[in-house]
Every structure is written in C-alpha cells, then in structure tokens.
Amino acid sequence: MQPTLSLCCLLLLCSVLAEAALRKSKKAPPPADANATPKVEPEKPLAPVTVPKTLSRGWGDAIIWSQTYEEALSNSRETKKPLMVIHHLEDCPYSQALKAAFLADPMAQKLAMEDFIMLNVVHPVADENQSPDGHYVPRIIFVDPSMTVRTDLAGRYGNRMYAYEAEDIPELITNMKKAKTLLHTEL
C-alpha cells in the first residue's frame, strides 16, 4: 500500500507544482515605464484538480487492491488469503451495475477488506485459468493461496459460470464465505 500511497502523493505534488508554474507564467509582465503602476487583473477561478484514478476503479476505495495478477498471487501466497479477481470493463453496463451493487453492500466490502487479496482487471490476464469458460465480463474468479483456481465457486448461470449480476450479490457473498471457509479447512 505504501508504494501506491507514495505514487498518489507524488502525482498530487506534481499537479500542484504544475498548477503553480502555470499561474506564475500567466501573470502580467512588469510595465516598461518604471513610474507606471502595473495593472492587476483578477485571477480566474482554476479548474478543479483531478485526482488520479485509483486501483479500486470504483469497486471500493477502502479495499487494498493489487496492481497486477502476479502481485496478487504473490500476496495471496504470503498472507494465506484467497485471491478474488474481478474481470470487468469500464463501459459495460453489466459491469457498472455489479460494481454499484458490490460497493453498496457492506458485507461484500467487509469481506473484501478483511479476508481477501483483491484484484480488478479491465484487460485480459495471460493466465488461461482465469477464463475457464470464456472471456465474458463481468466475471469473478477465486484463487486459493496454492494458486489453484476455485472452479467449484461459480455463480448461478450455466452458460457463464463465473458471471454475477447486480442482483447476485447475496450469491457472491456466499461464495466469498465459502472461499474463506474452505480455504481454512484445507490448509
């Protein structure tokens, strides 16, 4: 988390310094006549500072998110926590609806924060185990610390086994609890 925090602070500092440099360059040059008084122009309101997008991509800023699949697998092994990988697209209405439902559910957020290594990806992962039945979105795959994809933890759709929709949050929470419980009984 510290590298992420450091990166965010560095980006914020760079944007503030750039803003200050722009302000300084926009001020009027000193008058050519030494006796003349400089014209003071009122400052224009600045555009709001945009905060860089976080790794959460809107799925929960309180959750610690891994940056890459490899990092997430490593963290899972080190912490002995299962990995939950959310495959989605930013412009997909089904992904957006699932994201809103996941964000609004306190139990899903709590489980994600406390019991899982979390990763959300908008690009395909090289590991073909992450798409056991296709490359559709949104889909959620669980991986245990031994790097085994939990194919037994599927959603309720036969043609898209790992798909979840907004109204499937209770099913997702059940699978999250199973991933956590099964993991502890297997280790």
TrEMBL record:
<dbReference type="InterPro" id="IPR036249">
    <property type="entry name" value="Thioredoxin-like_sf"/>
</dbReference>
<keyword id="KW-0732">Signal</keyword>
<feature type="region of interest" description="Disordered">
    <location>
        <begin position="25"/>
        <end position="45"/>
    </location>
</feature>
<dbReference type="GO" id="GO:0005783">
    <property type="term" value="C:endoplasmic reticulum"/>
</dbReference>
<dbReference type="GO" id="GO:0002162">
    <property type="term" value="F:dystroglycan binding"/>
</dbReference>
<dbReference type="InterPro" id="IPR051099">
    <property type="entry name" value="AGR/TXD"/>
</dbReference>
<dbReference type="Pfam" id="PF13899">
    <property type="entry name" value="Thioredoxin_7"/>
</dbReference>
<feature type="signal peptide">
    <location>
        <begin position="1"/>
        <end position="20"/>
    </location>
</feature>
<comment type="similarity">
    <text>Belongs to the AGR family.</text>
</comment>
<protein>
    <submittedName>
        <fullName>Uncharacterized protein</fullName>
    </submittedName>
</protein>
